[in-house]
């Protein structure tokens, strides 16, 4: 199945590109005037080296050196955080082709997702293609569909257990990476679907990459550790590490879209099209947080600048702090709501309140919109 085939039957957005054109003009002017490249940033290469070195160091110390629980526990925590950092920074930019101007470098960066257990091939279709086109559209965006476990949008069916979701979902977020590692990727490839959206099954080199990536991860997660440690200890620390990474990854992504300030629009019933232009939709369904924190921006790979990322996914995240003021000013001039939380804590509280609101008995319900048979093109 080709990308063109997958592009059929996708949702359409309003044909009003004045806002988007002005945004692109201003950002292009920024790169020209500053004589910087949107990709291949030396800061990004240095950052990648630091993160990968930390990952390798923590893994080696945990598997080959640690001899007691008090040595292993902090190393496991640090390894879980290093895994999340790889996903936030290296893999994310590589999968969006924002790491480098060279395809093979982007591919190598994207394949670090396989290193930490999830398929870079499946992630491309699930996140880069489907999520970035259908962001926060119920029945289309797989990232806001966690089945009956939780209700993240006002258009999903409410179950009685959702009344307590603002408490029980936090530890369940930790299962996300476990599911990616051991179940979701295999299911999606076998079925050729991500939720209700069709995905082309990997073939030849892509299939070899999928199988090889899983084999590498299983060797690192279980094969090597079992040579030095008992089975129960390997399983225990595997769950601890990936659960921590799962909570961190899930929460960071939820703060961008599943909060009180984000919109959850639906397509018009008569036409199946969205009422806003694509760029406006990206801004109004996304919320930034902690924009002024250099430490959080560095650690999170610019994912606290999700508005900028959704508008310019092929710009390396190290540039988001600089272009965010341009984006905010343009939004104000065009009357587009620009949402942000001043801190990570503020975003966290907003997500908590949103979960509580969506689980409340008085929360409105509406029938899910059926997703199209085919997903969008990149």
Explained architecture:
The chain starts with a helix and ends in a 19-residue tail after the last helix. It has one domain. It is mainly alpha-helical and 378 residues long. The radius of gyration is 21 Å and the shape is globular. It has helices spanning 3-6, 18-34, 42-65, 69-95, 103-110, 112-115, 120-134, 165-172, 175-191, 205-226, 231-257, 278-284, 294-299, 306-311, 320-334, 344-359; strands at 193-194, 197-198, 287-289, 339-341. The chain contains 16 helices and 4 strands. It has a two-stranded antiparallel ribbon. Strands 3-4 form a two-stranded parallel sheet. Helix content is 59%, strand content 3%.
What layout of secondary structure does this protein have?
Layout: H1 3-6, H2 18-34, H3 42-65, H4 69-95, H5 103-110, H6 112-115, H7 120-134, H8 165-172, H9 175-191, E1 193-194, E2 197-198, H10 205-226, H11 231-257, H12 278-284, E3 287-289, H13 294-299, H14 306-311, H15 320-334, E4 339-341, H16 344-359
Parallel strand pairs: 3-4
Antiparallel strand pairs: 1-2
């Amino acid at each position: 199945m080709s990308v063109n085939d997958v592009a059929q039957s996708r949702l359409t957005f309003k044909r009003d590109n004045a806002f988007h054109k002005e945004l692109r003009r201003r950002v292009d002017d920024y790169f020209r005037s500053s004589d910087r490249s949107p990709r291949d940033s030396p800061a990004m290469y240095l950052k990648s080296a630091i993160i990968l070195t930390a990952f390798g160091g923590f893994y080696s110390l945990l598997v080959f050196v640690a001899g007691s629980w008090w040595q292993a526990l902090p190393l496991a925590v640090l390894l879980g955080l290093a895994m999340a950092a790889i996903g936030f920074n290296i893999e994310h930019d590589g999968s969006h082709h924002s790491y480098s101007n060279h395809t093979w470098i982007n591919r190598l960066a994207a394949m670090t997702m396989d290193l930490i257990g999830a398929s870079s091939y499946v992630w491309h279709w699930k996140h880069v293609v489907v999520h970035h086109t259908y962001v926060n559209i119920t029945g289309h965006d797989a990232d806001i569909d966690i089945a009956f476990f939780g209700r993240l949008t006002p258009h999903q069916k409410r179950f009685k257990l959702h009344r307590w979701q603002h408490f029980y979902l936090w530890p369940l977020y930790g299962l996300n990476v476990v599911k990616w590692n051991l179940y979701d990727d295999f299911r999606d490839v076998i079925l050729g679907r991500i939720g209700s959206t069709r995905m082309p099954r990997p073939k030849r080199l892509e299939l070899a990459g999928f199988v090889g990536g899983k084999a590498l991860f299983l060797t690192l997660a279980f094969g090597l550790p079992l040579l030095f440690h008992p089975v129960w200890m390997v399983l225990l620390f595997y769950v601890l590490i990936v659960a921590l990474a799962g909570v961190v990854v899930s929460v960071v992504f939820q703060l961008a879209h599943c909060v009180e300030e984000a919109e959850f629009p639906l397509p018009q019933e008569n036409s199946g099209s969205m009422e806003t232009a694509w760029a406006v939709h990206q801004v109004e369904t996304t919320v930034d947080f902690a924009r002024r924190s250099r430490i959080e921006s560095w650690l999170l790979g610019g994912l606290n600048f999700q508005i900028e990322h959704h508008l310019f996914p092929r710009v390396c995240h190290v540039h988001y702090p600089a272009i965010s003021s341009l984006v905010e000013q343009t939004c104000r001039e065009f009357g587009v709501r620009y949402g942000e939380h001043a801190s990570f804590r503020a975003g966290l509280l907003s997500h908590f309140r949103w979960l509580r609101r969506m689980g409340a008995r008085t929360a409105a319900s509406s029938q899910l919109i059926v997703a199209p048979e085919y997903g969008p093109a990149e």
